[in-house]
Structures
1.
Amino acid sequence: MISNVKNFGLFLIFISTFILFHACKQKPRQRDTKKIAVVISTLNNPWFMVLAESAVKEAESLGHEAKIFDSQNSTALEADHFENAIVSGYDAILFNPTDSDGSISNIQQAKIAGIPVFCMDREVNAKGVATSQILSDSYSGCVAIGKHFVKSLDKKGRYVEIIGMVGDNNTWNRSSGFHSVVDNYPDLIMVAQQSGEFDRNKSMEVMESILQAQPDIDAVFCGNDPMAMGAYQALVAAGLEDKVKVFGFDGASEVITSIQDGKIQATGMQFPELMAKTAAAFADQYFRGEREFPEKTPVSVELVTEENVRFYIEN
């Protein structure tokens, strides 16, 4: 009797194992790990490096694969990256656009292919194309910079504005926010406005050229921190670094240190890690079946000056 019970038990184990084996063979487990493309406008900027690397780190922490693609500020190269992501079977794209209008068609191609696109930091001029856009509140951030600018110059003086890339909405949001304040003071006179293309070397060249025509200036407002550092280099070369006040935007570590050292007046602290983490989290939620996302998610910008810079120094 005992022998029969043992034999029956072994038979049940054999049958259960047989059924489980064939069930797994007939119905393979669905792959949980997804592939995420992180397409960045340019890696020739430390701030965007932080954005890209934070997106990858967060995606990987959520159990997914992620790869960075550098568009080098070219919509054509950006289009190649999107085509590659579509053909290679990527499941989502975390995207920092090169151009507010020129990047729309690339997102549309991904949407047609069923691939969600989550924009980071830079927006595109189209609704319902990107799955969601996570953006710095550049306008409000530059309103705060404008107020500090007015106070620092005691409401009067001649200044230069170096804007970013003409096709980027951030360029005009920042400029508009700044001018919404500064233009109310008639004794603050803008003597030149040129594009530094968000690039340090380009900004230095632009500043050098402007100084030849307008050597008597009191301040420079730059649309990002690399341009602020480029402008500052040009002022140092001209021996004007102690006379001309420089204002930036981004919150780059080099500029934070420069504010502490009294070289740069102020910047707007953005939070690329937060934007990247939010985009990666949204992609993960999409993989889990979520389809309702906010059209835009604004991320606040904080004014950093010599009065509060100690709170932003990395230890």
Note: DSSP finds ten helices and twelve strands in the chain.
2.
Amino acid sequence: MSLQQFINEAISPWLKEEAEDNDIVLSSRIRLARNFKEYPFPIVADEKTLEKVLDVFADHFAEHSLGKNANLELVRMSQLEPIEKRVLVEKHLISPSLAENQKTGAALISEDEQVSVMINEEDHIRIQLYQPGFQLEGALDYASKLDDWLEEKISYAFDENRGYLTSCPTNVGTGMRASVMMHLPALVITQQMNQIIPAINQLGLVVRGIYGEGSEALGNLFQISNQITLGKSEEDIVEDLKSVVKQLIEQERNARQRLMKNSAIQLEDKIFRSYGILANSRIIQSKEASKCLSDVRLGIDLGLIQNVSKTILNELMILTQPGFLQQYAKKGLTPEERDVKRATLIRERLNLEQE
């Protein structure tokens, strides 16, 4: 397989679409937690019960379509190799927890990978809907339609006073997590993120790394999401998040302008040094690669680097993860071998831009 073929197959089609504010907001996501009314929740259910949950999806939803998302495929964790599951985690289509559920875990994934319904994770159902750029309202609208479609065949665990019932009390109510993935390099460079994160937390929102709870903000990528699901409507949660995200977008753009005005030569040096490392390294670890990719993406957004696509951060942040590197190599790799393969793939990817 050529690198170009590998990129085309590895990157979710929706990630390539142009969208509002996608120089800073890479993606918007709505996640809904739901459970079957008649079955114990996964944390206490036996294997036979969880198989019944899986049968509902196999019988009623697999190979069906909703809107533009055709051919929803049921992917069972028991049928995947460890590297294949790791790739799905790296693409945010399943969680690490679901990947570990070897017997009854599964996911219903749309052809364009915009929709992913995780089955028998912490809850019976975790609906995920992605949109490129800053499109929270569009994501919510589509997720709600998907939710209604599933409810035609499934009776949800619901309480008139508490809302949707979930395994974790923090998800009770709407059962919704709304989030955006943001690239905020200028706020990191100017050391403003250290003050911004506590302020965001006080507003009932949380700031995490690229892979959610407990993960590091690699490549200056931050996931901003709601913490409160009870006592607010889905629309109110989205509006609160939108308000904060709009302020972050403005602050990031202002920080970029100040850097260009006050420290232009230092910023250019930082960006082009990172480009040089990516273009010439023979060995590179994931943390250094993420940092350099963030710098290059900033250079592209500021017009300093003109011959590289701005989708390169989206692509290479995924393609250089351990699962994808091993998939591309078609074999297991040691950490040292992955560092060599990562450097090679990045150089090849940059060379494609010059062709």
Note: The radius of gyration is 21 Å.
3.
Amino acid sequence: MAGVRVFVLDEEDHLLLVQSDYKKQGPEHMIWVIPGGGIEPGEYSRDAAIREVKEETGLDIRVERLLWVVEEKEPNGEVDYCHYFLAEVTGGQLSKGYDPEWDMENQVIMDVQFFSREDMSKVSNVYPEAALDEFWDLAGSASTHDPWRSRPSRGFGSRK
């Protein structure tokens, strides 16, 4: 499966996160995740990034650059790809959005918020872990870096 995740910064360099109960197991299993999701057939990854952020948060964005391409090998041998982008808010109204894969009675998005780098250190259950450290160093730099990441799949992880 191909997907996107979008690191969205506001004008004060706060990072946008979506609180999700995607396993539908209650508050103790909720995670804060970078907005994103699957790329639809025939859709470009940048367009998927814009669409996913709008669906989940109500915000319009401009994709600034590609940060990473993450390749994850599943236990069954399949390989998933995810493009991680950096974006800025250009409009819209911040609001708890929806996941079109779920009907309205079973939505998994519980909240949306912007967090400062300092506040991020106090948030548990964040995905991906790069939102806690590596992203902040990269976002503030114009330097080139290797955007390719390869790892075994860990699914939705957290660092507590």
Note: The helical segments are 45-57, 117-120, 134-139.
4.
Amino acid sequence: MPTTRRLLQSAASLSSTSPSPSTRAAILALQSLTISTPSHLPITQRRSAWFSFGRKKTSAAAAADDVASTVVKELEPRTKDRLANQLRGGRVESDSIFSDELAESDKKSAQAKAEADAESVAGGGLNRDREVLARAVDPDPRSRVRWERKMVVRHVVKATDPFSKESRQARIRRTEKELHEKSPWLATSVKKLVHLSRQIAGKSVDEALVQMRYSKKKMAKEIAYQIELARDRAIVERGMGLGAVVKGQEGEGRNVVEKIQTKDGKHIEVEDPTKLYIAQSWVERGPWRGYRKSPRARGRMDILKKPSTSISVLLKEQKTLIREHKEREEKKYRQGPWVHLPDRPITAQRQHYSW
């Protein structure tokens, strides 16, 4: 049914008084226009407001719009408001039998929404109810309790069982400290920076700083700055290098000098086990900082790339050197003395030569 006909029917049903002669004439004219529409033509629906943009209205459509506007103007104000409310709701028929229930549910939902908004505003924009926060933070409390109980039992069993053995890696992480420091990308190449990295690896922090102080390389100052930064971080954040005192046979409150041999065969004396040294040092290739053109012969051009490199240092305490020395000595003791000919039974004996 066309929109104008539906509008006129609803207007006629809503009007309590008889229409005026002009309104009746407009209705008859509109009915004649709508009835005279051929039935064999397809009815085109208007998809959107831009569907008929730019098209000219036909004479029949213009006349229908004029009649509809005239009818709406002559309706009573009360009838016009009632018609507008029904059209705004999307229906023209009368209210259903469930209108009271629907209105009550809408009222309850609006009241609940207002209460939730008030609670959220009072809590700073969030619902800070304990139950709500518990559901968000701990969605499965039973599984969490079971997992915590399992971890506690495992820790107690390992700590109290005389036959349990702590893993080597766990023992090292518990008793020794370390710090990894990585520098930002420096304006140099890997080929140049790797020599300075090898120069400081295995040395104490003080020796490495002395090496970088008297080095003629351009990046020596940057590496010295990174070593100092790593040293300060290790002291402040990890509590390394605080000069612990070891009590021994030589007296109370005095450090015991321990002679050890490093991995590369160098003999050193350790007075303070907490003294910092550079356990590892390596470089990493970074992104290209830019490009530069280099003119060549015969009108050609080379592209020179500007590299960037970073250096990383791993600081540890000299108690790690003591542990590594003891592990090497224990391994050597387990292997026993070296012999040229192993002491094992001779097999595959023949009385004749095999050639």
Note: Confidence is low (pLDDT under 50) at residues 33-51.
